[in-house]
User: What shape does this take?
Amino acid sequence: MSAQGPPPSAALRAADRLLAGALFFASGALGLGYQLVWVRKAALVVGASQIALSTVLTSFFLGLALGSYAVGRWLRSPRWSPLVVYGLFELGIGVFALSFPLGFRALEGVYASLYPVASGSAAALFALRFLLLFALFLPPTFLMGGTLPLLLDGLVTRDREVGSLTSALYGTNVLGAVAGVLATSYFAIPSIGMNGTSRAAGLCNLAVGGLAIAAFRTRAPLHAPRQAEASPTPRFYLIASFVSGLAAIGYQIAWARWFALFATGNVHVTALLLAVYLAALASGSLLLAALLRRGWTPLRLLAAAQLVAPLLVFACLDGWRLVSLQHVLAEPQGSYEIHSTWRFASEAIDSVFVAPLLQVALVLFAPVLLIGTGLPALVAAATASAPALRASSGRLLFWNTLGSSAGGFAVGYALVPALGLAGALRALAALSLGLGVAALWRERRESQRRGVPRAGLALASAAAAGCIWLGAGDPVRRTVAGFATDGERVVDLVEGPVATASVQASSRKLTLSSGNVRHATATQGEVSAQVVQGHLPALFYPRAGAPERVLGIAVGSGQAFGALLQHGVARMDVVDISPEIVRLAFAHFGAFNYGLGSDPRVSLHLDDGRHFLDRAPDQSYDVVLLEPAPPTHEGMHALYSIEFVRSAWRVLREDGVFMQWLPLHFVTPNELRRIVATHLAVFPQSLAVRSGGTDVMLLGFRRDRPPRFERAWLEERLRVLAQEPRLRGRRWAPACRHEATSLYGLLSLVLADSQALATLEAPVYVDDVPALSYSSGDRWLQRRYEGEVLSRLTFTALPLAPFTRLARLFPGPLPLLELESERARVLANFHVASPLEIALAVDHYRREPPGEARAWAAIGVAALHDGSGAKSEALVWLGTALREAPGFATPGFLEAVRLLVRHRIAVDPQRIATWLAQLGAAERETPGAAAAADELAQHEAREAERRSAYLFERAEDVSPRVAPSGPTLR
Assistant: This one.
């Protein structure tokens, strides 16, 4: 005990421990919240989230290591309790968090000034990014690293408590981290943004620090400084601690790459990986505490855990397949109703939390449970007495976190690129097995027993054999092959520091993928949407001649960039962060991308597109275009924020064109509105143009007035388009009357001008609150209907400009009604009716005599509107049909009414219910209204049955706040 005062009572020590444990739980929650924010903010500097994760983890653990070492060795006070110093450390972390937004802006400024010096070398650029992030994160991570040694020094009084209390405190802190990472990902960042999360957490840290100082300010140190001077920790424990940390974080990085293969659309996967990993670590630590209290030997437990953990790593790798949540379209035909393959909490909770959590847990939890015993077991084995715990734990924490830092770097940047993910896992397994065997020998030596530890070596041999058997084959190639469709086979696969990319081939088709995300498809003899979108910026370039200098972001297959080069472009900068994608695009798609990889006009930059654009010179390009992954996938929000669009405006020359992708099959109506609103906030002069399939391109022009395109320009550029052999003589859709390479064929692709797009008022996307990644208010539509059905639903939110107004942009005279009809044929996959078709149907209705014939004509008008997704207009005409023939009750008529109500009923139940409630008394009593009400009642009964299978789902959980309204001419 310290000489400053009498020892505290046992009851007081218990109260101190309870309070300190609660505070340490809170600080763990705040610390991992910061880490998640830092990963997302760092992605704005270093690019892809996987690189950001590796870089942040490396610098994070290096700072923790320095903090634990310094506190364990030097920072002592004969007067202040270590618990008070702990409070001061928490105050320091809070101050940093409150100032983090300013610090990050300063880092970006320094980085921008040094970037030109380092950009010529990949190694120099990496070193610059790492050193700047490390310098930024060093103060808080240093303080975080010192908290555990301080708490142990302030709470552990008896030698026999060393192992159990160390494990208990470590586990409590990690459980807090689990709570923090989940709260940050699911609530804080989506609600108040990354900067707001940092500030709120900073205030909480100040509260934790202030409470610790207030509660422990009168406590005297439990151990005098001279008592705590321990003999040097044996080298074995330092090396073992380093290896344990390296393997633990190495596995974490490897698992992150594993889930990147098939969970790319879930923004919460990074948080869930951290949460499950930490929960398993905490569980392992708490389990170890219980076993140590029962007299188990720490080194023997460490050896057993390290020998069995690799077996579980390989055995559990495919455990995620047991929880495959899928939504499938269900009967009745055309209702767009969904049945899930399994149900638990609610449709939304299952999709974004329960299913991915179980998938992650089935892969990670069991092996990490054993890995989590490593550090506390080493601390318990290496520490001889309570007074020496602070110094011993500080040293071991230093080497463990130093190993963790090395593991984050080695696996992310070295092992996976060199050996592949499977090879990296085998290397980590060998490391764990080696540590287990070494722990067996060390335990034998310290117990002074002679002879070979036969039981332990038998376990080690069995574990090694099991790892060889379970780790045979290539799980990555096997998983990627499972994503192939239509008889495709994997012909090439590349694993690198950024992505796992592959090419699948069938008899006529090539597909380029990253994990399960399909970046591009090329089919022999057919033109792809990527080729068309590459031509569009040149076709609609708002001045004579061709664009001279172009920036292309995200290579994909390169088809878009190669197509644009055919228009006489002088120079093109192509930027992609993934060398794996670039290598496969150049090696396999040369016949489809016009030999992009060998074109002397092309300069390739292996960098993050957002990062490159932010640092490009002002007014340096005539065109900026992108071919990225879907906008709702992890990390893609940064290419749709207003900050990114402003950067595009800045680098464009006068009359330059910025083209942004709107894949209707991946985004919801609300997301479309916000993407368009963000685009128009910077480019008020824009066009929406269809490029094929379900893809729409936003073309923004750097000019103050609407562009005008001369006939001579268009005809010259269409001659270039006509040289594309896969387009020559073709039409955009079978029913089209004009060839794709004709003037009218081109104009039929134009959907909306700025005036029409401006009607889509919505909040803009910003970097700080990545709402495009998290939620959109109608994300349930994307969960249910991603693909063809979603594209029709989202198309209903896109306003169409009439050709009477579009004509001012193009040379005339133009056949306006013919162009309206041709556009409807181009959009046949969206079931769009042309204004002429609707006008003729309305005229037919008016010419019919009152009664049943007129009712059938009104049903025909309603069906045209309903097929286009304009449910409100369809219901208005359905009401007209009921008024025209109140007593009409033939089976055919009633079935027609039911079909109109049933179509998209799962999307529009509120609209239909409102329409029924607003019918007049006479219409409400008609057989047609009764049929409509019965169809709605059947739907509600099916929905009630579906919801009853969930624990928490209510009707409003999946009802749209604002239902799609249908494409209208604006």
